Structures are given as structure tokens and as C-alpha cells.
Amino acid sequence: MANIGYARVSTSGQSLEAQLEALKVCDKVFKEKESGAKAERPKLTTMLDYVRDGDTVTVTKLCRLARNTKHLLEIVEYLEQKGVSLVVLNLGIDTKSPTGRLMLTMIGAVASFERQLLLERQADGIAIAKAKGRYKGRKPIAKDKYNAVREMNSAGISKREIAKEVGISLSSIYRALSSVS
């Protein structure tokens, strides 16, 4: 019976430090820097395969584990089938009890609802700003770095290394190399 932690941040620029501090009580912690919007997260999958009957998975916040209620319930159901409980530290929820499972389901639904409202308000605000000519979108950072990408690629540096060095995504690297200036 092990206590397994799962810590996640969305981008490489964010720090796992606060989560790792809270998860010090865990026997093993799986760390991930991946968007929560992605259902397929390598470390999450590894952690779900790793846990065994009697184990407990601990997360600091619900949003670190899943972005929507459906995904959350799928994870919880999978854990239950394996005989594993889930503890959410900031909410004091433990799915070992029926009350804990009910609270997790309700809070997950409310969080998902809140996220949908936020996205709606954001879309409305952008539409209004566009109509007034005030919204231009995010400045394309990667295009400013295309020449450096091409030079590094010509020097034989790997695309993954270029992405890390220049600070843009791998897909932006491929876009830079396929576009003509």
C-alpha cells in the first residue's frame, strides 16, 4: 500500500516546486509538464499503470489531474477498478468513502461548469474587442526567430535542441523550416 503523488504544470516555464513540497508525504511522485487539456499525458498514463490494489493517488488540486468532469470520472473509475483511492489535498477529499466520491463528482462538475463559463466570457470579450478594432491577437513570437532556426538547422543541430534553445515549439520549428522568407 503506497501513497503515489501526481504533480503537473501546463508549461515548461512553470514550477512544480509547490506541488512537490505538498507531496513530500508520498512514496513516489510522477511529475509532468504537459497541458491538462490533453487527455493523453505520458506520466499520467505511467502512474495509472503503476498503481496497485490498496495504493492511494494524491494530488494537490483537482485541476492538476483532469480538466473536465468526464475525464476526472474516467480516471477515478479506473483507479477504483484497480482498488486505488484518490486524495485531493486542497479539498480534503478521499474517494475511499462514498461521501468522498460524491463530493469529488460534484466539485468536478462545478469546476467544469466554471471553466465553460470562463471560456464563454473570454470569447465574448474577444468578439467585442475585435468589433471595436482593439483585438489583434497574440504577437507571433516564433516568426521573429525563423532565421535563427534555419541557421541552427543548417549547422546540423537537432530540431528538438533548436526548439529548446530558441524557446519555441517543435511544430514552430517545422513551420519555420518549411516556410520561405
Report on the structure:
The protein is of the alpha/beta class and 181 residues long. Helix 1 links the parallel strand 1 and strand 2.
Descriptive tags:
181 residues, alpha/beta, five-stranded mixed beta sheet, 5 strands, 49% helix, flat
Low-confidence regions: none
Helical/strand content category: alpha/beta
What kind of sheet is the major sheet? 5 strands, mixed
The share of residues in extended strands comes to 5-15%
Number of strands: 5
Mean pLDDT: 87
Major beta sheet, strand line-up: 2-1-3-4-5
The secondary-structure element order is: EHEHEHEEHHHH
From the spread of the alpha carbons, the general shape counts as: flat
Distance between the termini: 59 Å
Oligomer: single chain
Compute the number of helices: 7
> What Rg, in angstroms, do the CA atoms define?
21 Å
Helix content: 40-55%
Brief rundown of the structure:
The chain has 7 helices and 5 strands; from the N terminus they run βαβαβαββαααα.
Chart the SSEs and their pairings:
Blueprint: E1 3-9, H1 17-22, E2 28-33, H2 42-50, E3 56-59, H3 69-81, E4 85-88, E5 93-94, H4 98-131, H5 146-154, H6 159-166, H7 170-178
Parallel strand pairs: 1-2, 1-3, 3-4
Antiparallel strand pairs: 4-5
